[in-house]
């Protein structure tokens, strides 16, 4: 038997089938375009994306006939929602978080309630990128669409619904709307009223990892699936990735996602001190694991910055068909063993918490004729990691200390990058054999919700295998502590 994890991102989707022992059996991915039909608009064509998702499912199902799929679950991007009827008719496009519409509705919202009060209810800091301002915009500017919509569903819940599952909203993605109460795990009547939105437009909140029914006969026939495949509620991609990294309790191990951007995800067994979290602009979100909460500490300059470096400082577009290594491997091979004086401030795009700075102020400082391309790349990896050092140190103040990191994503394939991370943060960093953590986490949910696994512990122990552990080199950590002080001084200067 196998379990199917579906992962839906902003520009692409993938489906991965795993054995119950965590072996990847088959994988398929598809890309799709972001629609920019107006100034500041950013949307997904829901019918097109759903079609791409179905394509990946069909490809994977055809490759695992000897290990038939028993259950599936879905991991997805947050914030963006899909307008749909109870009869599964898609009514329009899905507005993405970075779409600029909705500012005026957020401003009006904040005239009635303070950011502190919103945080106490929802655990997030108000911003135009959440679902609420977008749906408020739809209500005013597309009233017919708003009126016809029975539900606005997050992408993970929408795909489960379109495959035949019950219409629900999972806790982790409900929190990304700015309308969900993390204390009661229900829609907040107060926030809905102040936003001028109708509670009936939002499906009932439910935990991740519960059965939503079975794939419909029509979908089974269309995708060549066996009948009776169970659909299990999924969650926010970062939460699923945390589960796929083995983060199922507050054992002081955090996920360290090393993808397009870097995301650190610690877990807590209860809602942390709200005053501390608000002061440090650390959000609180329901994990896909029952009775756990997580925070998202991120910077958009991660793998994207390394890719920019590759394009700018190498013949990135040159064909490599006659070479045994790809361009990233070649560049990482140039990284020296010694630490240099170059300091990189990784503000090449918007930052995440605690400052949420929008202006770009990326800096490469301290260059000389003696430095090489490898020296610059090393400093970029250092700057990316320095960004998180203060945050992780501050967590110790309220007994939220992170003692170990579990890495996933494309960047985790580089042992050199992992070593730099371990040295700067002075913490061991582990990597699992499967780095497709979001899909793996969704598959674990599928196994739990279908009864194949009796607990999160059983699912994680069965499907996750540790690949390696990188321990910090003490001599390097001491050098980096000194370099971090210089980094902070330069960062502080550029911030003002």
Give a short synopsis of this structure.
This protein has 496 residues and is of the alpha+beta class. It contains 18 helices and 25 strands. The model is unreliable at 318-325 (pLDDT under 50).
Written description of the protein model:
Helix content is 38%, strand content 20%. By secondary structure, the protein is an alpha+beta fold. The strands form 8 sheets. Strands 3-2-1-5-14-13 form a 6-stranded mixed sheet. The chain is globular.
Helix % is 25-40%
The separation of the N and C termini measures 57 Å
Q: Strand percentage, roughly? A: 15-25%
The CATH superfamily of the domain at 2-239 is known as ATPase, nucleotide binding domain
Known CATH architecture of the domain at 2-239: 2-Layer Sandwich
Global structural class: alpha+beta
Question: Main sheet, how many strands, which sense, barrel?
Answer: 6 strands, mixed
Output the CATH class name of the domain at 2-239: Alpha Beta
Total of DSSP H or I helical runs spanning 4+ residues = 18
Give me the count of strands. Answer: 25
